[in-house]
Amino acid sequence: MTNPALAPTPIQRLLSLDVVRGITIAFMIMVNNNGGPGSWGFMNHAAWNGLTPTDLVFPTFVFVVGASVVFAFEARLARGARRSALAWHTVQRAVVLFLLGVVVNGFPFFALDHLRFYGVLQRIAVCYLAVGLFYLWDKRASTKVIALVAALVGYYVLLRWVPVPGAGVPGRDFPFMDQTLNLTSWLDRLLMPNHLYLDWSGPGLHNVRDPEGLLSDLPAIGTALLGMLAALWLRTQRSVSAKGLGLAAGTVACLGCGYLWSVWFPLNKNMWTSSFVLVAAGYSLTLLTVAYWVVEKFGWGKGQSKGLVYPWLVLGSNAIVAYMFSELVPSALSNIHFVADGKRTDPLAWIFNHVFIHIPDPGWAAFAFSVFTLAYCFIPVWVLYRKKIFVKV
Predict the structure, then answer these.
(1) Mean pLDDT across 239-252
(2) Could you give the CA distance from residue 269 to residue 62 in angstroms, rounded to a whole number?
(3) Of all helices (H) and strands (E), which one includes residue 343?
(4) Is pLDDT at 180 greater than 50 in this prediction?
């Protein structure tokens, strides 16, 4: 006999998850267009080991992808969709997401000799494919926990004790977590020579590693699995208060375990270390916990109080559209050159140097430019939202 306390809740859209997605994509757009060298430190990634709020944006989006799989798949299964059809659609969607990521990397010139095949949307595609097919094969939370532990511990073992060809054993023959001498970078250079992320952080570090490389997809899948576990918890028939407390407990557990592990395995977004997975998931759960309480318990986003979270619902409903727009428009505008005030410039640089430069504080000037970018990216998704058009890749 089924325990009613553990029976799944009726299928319905979780507005709080849309809010989290919207906040995440908004911050992602801002930090990707942060106004340049004058921007505040928290609007930039950590140079290597360490953590800034900017480092949390991408893993939060991957976390939301994992959570969204549960609600989206269950809704379609409840409408009569076959698992085989869902599996095929999952593969198709992953391929489209991957190709969109290649478009973002190559736009507008698509130089094939150095075209980068790794990237943000590509990692999302890999994680979505892995956890989506896994969920269709087995819905139990226990198997997700086993896979999570295997991914995070396995990644640590690979980086800590597997010798890097031509370099030796990490921690013995060269420093553990070296920027270029590590297994993830070695594998990416082997598979994708001259097609990696161009790193300008120091001399001799050009095109030698990639922050979204192949091997680090393994712990990134762990991030999506944590999101899936959160969604499985939210689908149980517990009260809103009990679910919120459960999310809060998960927050404490992830942060505690992650920061403890970081003593031996440093927090590092570039390599997506296992400790980073747990700490980032802890902060993602913090955001989800707050959103869940204010939306599901206090009713924000419903009825007359919808305006309180309206911008995040708009962005969250067409997050991929907003992201693509934020990447392609600046790329296009940066390649339109003209002469102004005796100098060669482009439209965005001209706007910054004639509008935002007048803000005395460089940090505030850069932040205002980020808000400006978010504002014009909001327009197309707002139009789509008003017309009830939700683009599903």
Answers:
(1) 94
(2) 13
(3) strand 343-345
(4) yes
